[in-house]
Amino acid sequence: MTKKGLDVSPFVNEANDPxxxxxxxxxxxxxxxxxxxxxxxxAILLNGEDAAKTLKAANDEINALFD
Length: 67
Hints:
Layout: H1 9-16, H2 30-47, H3 51-65
Helix pairs in contact: 2-3
């Protein structure tokens, strides 16, 4: 993220401090990731979809964002 001009040190410092909580990281495609995961968990928790199958599909979709 440094190449993009983003200082992510607050996230790294927070993650490395054993007395702190872990903040949500900065990532590319954040809105897409949230949409995919929200839809996946809704499908599982609200519609009874198979968790393994649904999460595998979500993982594949997320990985494709970074190809």
